[in-house]
From TrEMBL:
Source organism of this protein record: Photinus pyralis (Common eastern firefly)
Location of the Aminoacyl-transfer RNA synthetases class-II family profile domain: 129-439
NCBIfam families: asnS, PRK03932.1
Coiled coil start-end: none
PANTHER family: ASPARAGINE--TRNA LIGASE, MITOCHONDRIAL-RELATED, ASPARTYL/LYSYL-TRNA SYNTHETASE
Signal peptide: none
Pfam families linked: tRNA-synt_2, tRNA_anti-codon
GO molecular function: asparagine-tRNA ligase activity; ATP binding; nucleic acid binding
Family assignment from sequence similarity: Belongs to the class-II aminoacyl-tRNA synthetase family.
Protein name (record): asparagine--tRNA ligase
Length: 449
């Protein structure tokens, strides 16, 4: 007896062979002497039909886990079905006991999100998780082909890379430390062995250290932001894909690379996950942009569009950053094609960005705006002039001499970017709420499970 995952049954021919599968009953129908079970094991979006006798029908409820053994055959509709000789019930599942999902019923994403521990069993969310996995692999394959090295950067750090004051401080959770903290009126962030320690908001500064030895590096890891936002686009913990490249020629190199990355990864996901995309996508499947060149606007060009009342009816203040409405409008204005906004006013962006050669009031920075989410990527050339960098370093007592040293010793022109992985999934799947593209979303007041 071959033990098979259901995806492999659909991939080759096991008809006439005795096989065993292990999975969860999604639905069951009784017809005369027979019980027809739709069984899924998470390996693909398709269910395998398993035929059982009605003898143990009462225990084979929807949601139960089973091991079924029998001969695989063609069904009258010429699909595969398992004519079971034996079914072992692993774990029963009863709505009467409080299981929140009835068979065949479709639930809203808000309802399903209340049960994060059961969510991976829904067909919609298991499809999402397979797409998330495929996208992760596509990213690693792409970077590998491009000659980039994946590195692990720390989660505990002393810097606030973005300088936005959105860090979570790390505090050792023992009574003595906490009492000391209260007694000596220490701030929470001063209690990690007496130095400020945060959960990282970005791996960038550490990647910059590594890139000055390995030339091309990236990381895909968790980042944390204490933004008090419950918006459909913000999480307290999200995955960011960050890359850095040394010996770079200019911002154009970064734009070209990002465009290639987004197109390659999306094409791979479309090729691999056709069925899952149908199940988990919320908004149409408009991938026309895959064949078009991404639009590039300067900040000033974008501002001119937003100030023109014949084009944009809302308000925009010259020199200010773009809000979600502005971002959405610009992408629509550019025909739904992903749109770079480059050369931003210096005071809107973090200290590490390089001034534009032709205009010192601007930095060589980019935001990539896409439909459904707005800002998907943020990046820039890095300031590699030591004096300019030193003048802009944050003066909040954070020790960044090591970062300056990267310019003092063997510095190179370098650049990089960070792409919000959850926002990327929202973008390609048209999913409204970012909490529906990550297995266990964290947002203010929501970290119980
Ligand atoms: O624009 P951000 O803040 O850029 C950086 O952190 C740079 N240090 C990256 C780099 O150059 N290495 O964040 C990058 C992206 C945003 O464009 C957005 O897609 C995503 O991260 N992002 C969030 N995603 C979910 N929830 C949040 N709270 C997010 N904040 C940023
Ligand atoms: Mg940004």
């Amino acid at each position: 007896t071959q033990n098979l995952r259901i995806i492999n049954i659909f991939r080759s021919n096991y008809v006439g062979e005795k096989i065993q599968i292990k999975g969860w009953i999604k639905a069951s129908r009784k017809m005369k002497q027979h019980l027809f079970l739709d069984v899924n094991d998470g390996s693909c979006s398709k269910n395998l039909q398993v035929i059982a006798t009605t003898a143990n029908a009462s225990s084979l409820t929807s949601g139960s886990s089973i091991i079924a053994t029998g001969v695989l055959q063609h069904s009258p509709k010429n699909e595969f079905e398992l004519n079971s000789e034996h079914i072992e019930l692993c774990g029963g599942c009863n709505i009467q006991d409080g299981y929140p999902f009835a068979p065949r019923k479709v639930y809203s994403t808000d309802y399903v999100r209340q049960y994060l521990h059961f969510r991976p069993r829904t067909s919609h969310f298991s499809s999402l998780l397979r797409i998330r996995d495929a996208a992760t692999r596509a990213i690693h394959n792409f970077f590998h082909k491009e000659g980039y090295l994946h590195v692990h950067t720390p989660i505990l750090t002393s810097n606030d890379c973005e300088g936005a004051g959105e860090t979570f401080a790390v505090v050792p959770n023992n009574q003595e430390t906490l009492q000391n903290m209260v007694r000596s009126r220490l701030l929470p962030e001063e209690t990690y062995f007496n130095s400020k320690t945060f959960l990282t908001v970005s791996a960038q500064l550490h990647l910059e250290a590594v890139v000055h030895g390995l030339s091309k590096v990236y990381t895909l890891g968790p980042t944390f932001r204490a933004e008090n936002s419950k918006s459909r686009l913000h999480l307290s913990e999200f995955y960011m894909l960050e890359a850095e490249c040394a010996f770079i020629n200019g911002l154009d190199d970064v734009l070209v690379f990002i465009e290639k990355l987004v197109k390659n990864v999306t094409t791979d996901v479309l090729n691999e996950c056709e069925d899952d995309l149908k199940k988990s996508s919320e908004g149409g499947d408009n991938f026309a942009w895959l064949d078009k060149k991404f639009v590039v606007l300067t900040y000033d060009g974008a501002a001119a569009i937003l100030k023109d009342k014949t084009k944009y009816p809302g308000d925009f203040v010259e020199g200010a950053s773009l809000n979600k409405d502005h971002e959405k409008f610009l992408v629509e204005y550019c025909g739904g094609i992903p749109t770079f906004v480059i050369n931003w006013p210096k005071d809107l962006k973090p200290f590490y960005m390089k001034e534009c050669v032709e205009d010192e009031s601007r930095v060589a920075a980019l935001d990539l705006l896409v439909s459904n989410v707005g800002e998907l990527v943020g990046g820039s050339l890095r300031e590699n002039c030591r004096n300019k960098l030193e003048a802009k370093l944050p003066r909040d007592g954070v020790e960044l001499d090591w970062y300056l040293d990267l310019r003092k010793f063997g510095g190179t022109p370098s650049g990089g970017f960070g792409l919000g992985f959850e926002r990327y999934l929202q973008f390609i799947l048209g999913i409204n709420n970012i909490k529906d593209v990550i297995p266990f979303p964290r947002w203010p007041h929501n970290c119980k499970l």
